[in-house]
Each structure stands twice: as C-alpha cells, then as structure tokens.
C-alpha cells in the first residue's frame, strides 16, 4: 500500500489507534482501517464540493418565486371554479420573460389582460408594488369593455433596475400573473 505505520498514525487520531491496538489487531488490519477512514473523508469532501458547484452559476439571485400562470385542475371544486372562471382575469399578452437591457436606455414591459369585469393591473418589482415616479411610468389603456393594456417604462435604466418584475391582473373572479426577469449589460460606444 505504500503507507508505513508512522504515516498512518499521523492521519488517524492517536486515540483511535490506541483503542484498536488494545484489541490486539494485526498492524496490517489497522492500516486497512485507517486507509478506509481516510478514503471516506476524501470522498465526502469531494462530494461536498461537487454539490456546491451548481449553486454558484446564477447571475442574479432572487428570493422571490417566479410568477407563472395559474393553470391546471384543483382538488377543491371551489378553487377550480374560481381559477377557471370564464369571466376571470387572464393575461392575454405579455413581454418576454428574460430581458437584458443596456444601462442608460429605456426598459419597457407590456401586459394585456382580459376579463369581465375589466381586470385591474398591478406591477411589482422583487415582490414589492411599484408606482410611477420621475424615471418610472405606468401607462394604461382601456380597450373595449373587458380588456386593459398596461405598459411599464423605465427611462433611463440603471443597475438598480435589474430584478424580477411582475404584472398581476385581477378582478372579482380570478388573478393571473406574469414575471419578467431583467439584467443589465454595458454598451461601449
């Protein structure tokens, strides 16, 4: 094996060696046990490194759940009736999910919802509701009796504008939502 008794004693705790030697095991058996313990420790260390590797590749870390449309069948008939109501708010058109913007330029998201009564659209960034201010504008257009179009514009875009945006449409029958992930890039002119 290439390991002498002295090097094994350096690797394995002296207390373990004394305990094993007190049982009168042959030195060859002691070396095998020590080598097995060392191999198990090395394998455990490599496995720990491999398990952490996949978690570090994300560009943006968000602690908020990505809002996907609420669809499917529900166990409770009342829930099924609520979420699948024909008059319920449904987002008919929305911007792309992943958006990379250039610093200093405009960001624009669109959300079109339909329902009866006409839904109300609310915008969120990283889980908090956002409102119009000097650099962020929300425009709304009512189309017909049952549709609303909402546009979120940020001009000029900064690093602080990167994050997870969400458009939520709701009326008395249901709620629907879409999310948009943004990250910035730097343009060199």
3D structure, described in words:
With 189 residues, the chain is α+β, with helices and mostly antiparallel strands. Helix content is 26%, strand content 32%. The protein has helices at residues 5-11, 14-22, 27-53, 77-83, and strands at 90-94, 98-102, 107-114, 120-125, 128-129, 136-143, 147-154, 163-170, 175-185. Strands 2-9-8-4-5 form a 5-stranded mixed beta sheet, with no helix packed on it. A 4-stranded antiparallel beta sheet has the order 1-3-7-6, with no helix packed on it. A hairpin with a 3-residue loop joins strand 6 (136-143) and strand 7. It is elongated and about 90 Å long. The termini are far apart. The model is unreliable at 50-64 (pLDDT under 50).
List keywords for this structure.
single chain; 189 residues; alpha+beta; five-stranded mixed β-sheet; four-stranded antiparallel β-sheet; 4 helices; 26% helix
